[in-house]
């Protein structure tokens, strides 16, 4: 009799340039694990059409509605998924919670607790490298960060906190 595979859905919560994608890369090194990156998918599908935060919300919503059944199917087949999508608002996390509930699998919400000044320094480096799909200004960082909502216990997630202080 074969042992039942218990996949995990890994979720990432943290401000822009907090290290979500770096952590996602590490988590995706585990056997039988798939990494899905929101920025890469949005860039490939919508690219230059995404100019504003409103555009991001619209296109991200389309992507989530389209990809959700595929994520659930992967989890149901025993494949772990690292979802490098922002889990920075209650609404985003509610969508993600629906995924692991439908798939009836384990999950971890990785919360990157990184001071803004470190994120902004990393953001400058990231923008200068030109290797990221999207360039974010410090003004955009501040505007996006105003929408950040830290997860609370009543949301029902298994939290793993990653603190970076310097």
Layout of helices and strands:
Blueprint lengths: L7 E6 L6 H8 L5 E5 H9 L6 H24 L3 E7 L3 H14 L2 E8 L2 H14 L8 H8 L13 E5 L3
Parallel strand pairs: 1-3, 1-4, 2-3, 4-5
> CATH superfamily, please?
P-loop containing nucleotide triphosphate hydrolases
Largest sheet: 5 strands, parallel
Distance from first to last alpha carbon: 49 Å
The CATH architecture classification is 3-Layer(aba) Sandwich
Q: What is the top-level CATH class?
A: Alpha Beta
Q: What spatial order of strands do you see in the largest sheet?
A: 2-3-1-4-5
Q: Spans of 5+ residues with little confidence (pLDDT < 50)? A: none
Overall helicity = 40-55%
Structural class computed from helices and strand pairing: alpha/beta
Order of helices and strands: EHEHHEHEHHE
The tally of domains stands at: 1
β-strand percent reads 15-25%
Kindly provide the radius of gyration, computed on alpha-carbon positions and rounded to a whole number of angstroms: 16 Å
How many β-strand stretches? 5
Overall geometry comes to globular
Report the mean per-residue pLDDT as an integer. Answer: 91
CATH topology, which one? Rossmann fold
The count of helical stretches stands at: 6
GO molecular function, one term: ATP binding
Keywords: ATP-binding, Nucleotide-binding
Organism: Roseibium sediminicola
Protein name: ATP-binding protein
């Amino acid at each position: 009799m074969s042992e039942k595979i218990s996949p995990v859905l890994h979720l990432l919560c943290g401000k822009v340039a907090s290290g979500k994608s770096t952590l996602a890369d590490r988590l995706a090194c585990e056997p039988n694990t798939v990494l899905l990156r929101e920025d890469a998918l949005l860039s490939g599908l919508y690219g230059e059409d995404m100019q504003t935060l409103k555009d991001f919300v619209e296109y991200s919503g389309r992507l989530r509605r389209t990809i959700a059944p595929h994520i659930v199917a992967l989890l149901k087949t025993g494949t772990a998924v690292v979802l490098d999508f922002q889990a920075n608002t209650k609404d985003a996390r509610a969508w993600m919670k629906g995924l692991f509930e439908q798939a009836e699998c384990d999950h971890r919400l990785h919360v990157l607790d990184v001071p803004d000044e470190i994120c902004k320094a990393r953001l400058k480096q990231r923008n200068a490298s030109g290797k990221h799909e999207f360039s974010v200004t410090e003004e955009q960082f501040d505007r996006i960060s105003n929408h950040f909502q830290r997860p609370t216990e009543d949301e029902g997630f298994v939290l793993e906190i990653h603190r970076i202080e310097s």
